[in-house]
Design goal:
The structure is a homopentamer. Chain A is mostly helical. Chain A has helices at 21-41, 55-103, 119-139, 144-147, 153-159, 165-182, 188-213, 218-243, 247-269, 281-295; strands at 44-45, 48-49. Chain A has a domain at 85-214. Chain A contains 10 helices and 2 strands. In chain A, strand 1 and strand 2 form a beta hairpin. In chain A, helix 2 runs parallel beside helix 10 (281-295) and helix 8 runs antiparallel to helix 9. Chain A is elongated and about 90 Å long. The termini of chain A are close together. The interface between A and B is large, with 62 and 68 residues. Chains A, B, C, D, E: Keywords: Cell membrane, Ion transport, Membrane, Transmembrane, Transmembrane helix, Transport. Chains A, B, C, D, E: InterPro entries: YneE/VCCN1/2-like (IPR044669). Chains A, B, C, D, E: It is a multi-pass membrane protein.
Chain lengths: 313, 313, 313, 313, 313
């Protein structure tokens, strides 16, 4: 996620980090080169004058606007939903921690020495592990090593063998909840309340997996790309008779906005990746870990992550 | 559901799988042939010059844009809702399994030998059956044979006689819940929590049935088709005087986007079918089965489904 | 609700059932006649040439597009909300039936002989009555005769005297719930769960009443109609100088889409009526009745309603 | 709220009630007068010909369409939200009444003589008072006199001294709930269920207050007005060279739609007022009172409010 | 937040407070100056005539409209969400106060002398502190001094050391809830209900933090700005040949709307700041404090905040 204040005025034109220019440089240059060639030859190819006035572009512009507007909104909705889901995870983790600490009847206050032996600490630290595991799952990276200090040994050994680590952790959570009930430290109503927080965390995780596994239907992407390409590459023929040597410049602007909007859509459509406009999952997970470690009174020296080169991962 | 990374640049134009080109080839060819004919005759039919400038198309473009944009959004919303509902089913199945395993008081741990005789196993395996049954219901295929290993014999015999199998299974679930309460393995509060998960699964299933049984009002489809057809088939007369021999080409592009958008809308409007852009219900149900069998410690050798020729069913 | 598969190609133009053509034939013919007259006279009225180029129509097109798009979306939202609310009623009825049958402690299994004397049967059959009553309320038809076999005699006599039958039935439901609690067949938590299902049914019914009693603000409808009428009736003057004898044809297409969209909006804006594009409430209520009668093991010979002449009521 | 069926055809043009014409007559006449003047002088002012073709209007039309569409949607959303909130109040009042009558254990049936001395009656009648008080709060009118028969004397004396009457009434409701619990007429679970209904009513009331106290940001309104005014007042200069003596007519139509849409937005943006397109709060509150008085078996002769001159207040 | 009634007619043009004119004066003047220069030289730069008809602007207008409309909606959604979240905080605080006062069993009525020693008062006053702390967190200002009278001394000393004050306060709330349960003043079901209100407050706070920490993706802002700048600065070249000396005037209007919409989006996108169109958090927190102090019968002389110079902070 790119975090920077907006520079004013003409300095806007000299920012590259966070613009999507790097992804579209190639096709943009080809397009401008074509426009220059068309301008040079006045639209003649082998002595055949290609006449395209602005009218076809107004007509094709209609479905193109529908495609672009639609896909843009759909991609941004996915981005926002992804962000909200992680916000939900942050929140439910806080609620869950508060509930573990206050609703579970306890013999004495938390002591740092007890560590994962205290069921309340074990459950809270396991939600930290849950967040990290989910992040790795969504980014297709390996979670096992990072989770070692957060789980009891037998749990940690188990996770390398299961297909869905967050799901497994949540089952373990359920087992600890059962334990509390068996030990009469929790009555049914309060257990149901804690169980509801667990369901909410599971829900957010499942929705993240859904976003990851279900892209916007491929046919949209395909039709949008095709239409945008045809539009931009035919555009010089439509403009050259009217605006002459300004053609490559105008084509460049139009192509920049179309290809740029398209490339940006590609980035945020799958918001859990590593590209600059994706969500800052590392920072969110760090924030969860700090929150929860503070809640159990753990001494730690974790600091919130800060943007590097305006970019927070 | 089509899963493939987007090919870059001009390779985009040589993808057929997942484009909707196959559905619209016929009408597209007729349209281009007409445009060619019009170009050839310069718009004269029996010596009557049909004069249509671009203006009528700008005017008709207005309601057409409203129709297309509206229907596209409506169809995609149905697709997304369908996907979310199945995501909800996946999720609530996980929650339900966790609750069965942890909230129901049990004499001992799960043993594979007990099989469907153990009420916890029976309930969890029945949710697997529920998913499969719902999928078959939505796709109008026969569920009975697939459900045999997942149900106790008398239940399985019953399902061929009931009108709505998922609904019947949920009633059986309720009966088992009652059983647990009668055996004092569950107090009222926890039973209410489990009952709420069951209600959520039922809710998602009912919403899927609603989507299946209530199409977008037929009149929209009809008006959209008529307007799009008239627009595309009249277009050559409007363009031929301005852009000459480029007419068939431009008409082809416009018609491709309009008919394509329309055909795609048809596909995803009813997202539970078997066409390439529909939801991958087979894969989702397989995922549920793997999840839940893992949860009850069942030894199985099910693998997640993989896309075949980029297409996940 | 019209249920038919989309005919392909040019057969589209010969469908009348489900098109809104019948509602707009009059105004469309007047409009085309005017356009023909204008073409004949070349736009001269009493030797005053009315000059209107396409420009005014582009300008008026702006607010018209906003009106049309807005009203279309607003009307469709009402339609979808109406459908979802009835989906919710279907669902909550199923949940409610499951809860009555399983959460209420019972001495023995359901027997057909007990009939409405068994509180579980009485409550479930009363929800069938609730659906029918709500349907009649929304359609301004008389519910009393249809409800006779579904209620105990004194209840049935009472309903002809109350202002809101569904509301009264829900109060009776509450009384039976109280009865179960007094007889200790239900503890507080489970009663709260059943009460929540009743609240959900009441909520959906209240929302249906809200949709029925609150139309889209009349001023929108008025402004939209006026603008659309002015647009279409002035259009011939704007087109005749450019496209000559094609004017009536183009005016006909534009007017068909505008008036058609408007008439369709009128139909689905109030989705509980009897027009072809309205919701199939008869079929939904029949479905509920079959579901619930199956649930209580009642022998019946009800069949789901089928479309007549493509139209499901 | 205006309730009338849509008149067909040309009678549409002779409706004034419910059109927003009265609010915009002034500015519309000025605009048409200017257009007439411009037509008369052919756009010359002191011998300087003001040349504005249609092009600037197409360009300004772009942001104007965004403004108008946006504000229209935002205003209508507020209107719909307001309506839904009152629907929620209606609903939760019904649920609350059902819960009071059935979940609270009672010694005997309701008797009319007991009046507000019976806690169930007192709570239900107080919700009637709540609705009236909220309506008065939203409309900045005085609630005190209307509430006298609905509250016990000491409560009624108190309300003239509190800042937020509905909030105070809800606290009193909480006190009565506590009373029921202290008298063991309600267990914790059922009290929580009733408390949830009270929270829902409070939620709807708080959301109404939010809508009232937070208008659409003033800057939007300001920019929209300025752009629309400039557009309409400059329009004659852009049209006069093309369409001559039709200019005032076309300007009149365009201005009517723009100013009308704007004025309508103003009305429904704050949906709790007294203008014709606002919500019929009087009728809704009357409906609640009839519902709840029926529920407690009170003899009353209240009738639902009916529209006066097509307008329901 | 700017609160003023809309002035009518031409007085609209002489309002500066609340318009965003001050933020965009610079760029607007540069743009108009350029337009004047271009008009003066008829678009010649060093004897090279820059020919740009209106066509390129129609084409660039397409993506620009998508960008502007999208960003405008996205920014306004954030604004509305922010407002709703604070509405939720207001509401849940009221609910929470009602629950504390009525669901917690108490020996006697509230007495002003008890002060924070009474757990009910302590919890309610702490929610006041919570609101203030959240406001300061969202505005990056210092909360510590303002919270002193609202917390018990040891809590107040602690807050200067914690990273997230609202989160800490909520944990303290949980501790007091535990206390009530340990003292048997609350059974499990009612504790769960109060805990749910606390979760709702935490949820709203977490969502506010999410809005603050996650801006609209920077690339959108960047592309929008670039496109709008290019559009407005090239516009004089496109208009000068058609409308001559009116060019600077029309360019001024177009630029005002584009830059103004953009600047307004910047303001409301982050709705918790101090700019005139931001939310009136000071007034909301004051309102909460008055509500809750009234609820516990505290004598205070707080007054609701009033707008200063039409602006409520």
């Amino acid at each position: 996620m790119i975090l920077r204040s907006r520079p004013s005025g003409f300095r806007l034109f000299f920012i590259f980090r966070g613009s999507v220019l790097s992804q579209i440089t190639g096709v943009l240059l080809v397009n401008i080169a074509l426009a220059t060639l068309v301008t040079w030859t006045h639209g003649d190819i082998y002595n055949h004058k290609i006449t395209l006035t602005a009218i076809p572009f107004t007509l094709i512009g209609l479905p193109l606007a529908i495609f672009l507007g639609f896909r843009n909104t759909a991609a941004y909705d996915r981005y926002c939903e992804g962000r909200k889901l992680w916000g939900e995870i942050v929140l439910q983790n806080r609620n869950f921690a508060r509930q573990c600490l206050t609703l579970v009847e306890h013999a004495g206050p938390l002591t740092p020495e007890a560590g994962l032996g205290d069921v309340r600490v074990r459950m809270i630290v396991r939600t930290i592990a849950f967040s990290h595991a989910l992040r790795h799952l969504l980014r297709d990276t390996d979670a096992v090593s990072e989770l070692k200090p957060l789980l009891v040994p037998q749990e940690w050994q188990k996770i390398s063998t299961v297909s869905n680590i967050p799901d497994y952790l949540m089952h373990q959570m359920g087992r600890d909840l059962r334990l509390c009930m068996d030990e009469k430290r929790l009555d049914g109503c309060l257990a149901a309340a804690i169980d509801m927080s667990m369901s909410s965390i599971t829900a957010a995780a499942a929705a993240c997996e859904r976003i990851k596994s279900t892209p916007i239907p491929f046919s949209y992407t395909l039709m949008l790309h095709r239409t945008a390409y045809l539009y931009c590459f035919l555009l010089p023929f439509g403009l050259v008779d009217t605006i002459g040597f300004m053609t490559p410049f105008v084509v460049g602007i139009v192509a920049y906005t179309f290809f740029g909007l398209d490339a940006l859509g590609d980035e945020i459509e799958e918001p859990f990746g590593h590209s600059p406009n994706d969500l800052a999952l590392d920072a969110i997970c760090r924030g969860i870990e700090i929150n929860l470690r503070d809640a159990i009174g753990d001494k730690h020296d974790l600091k919130p992550l800060l943007p590097v080169n305006y970019c927070l991962m």
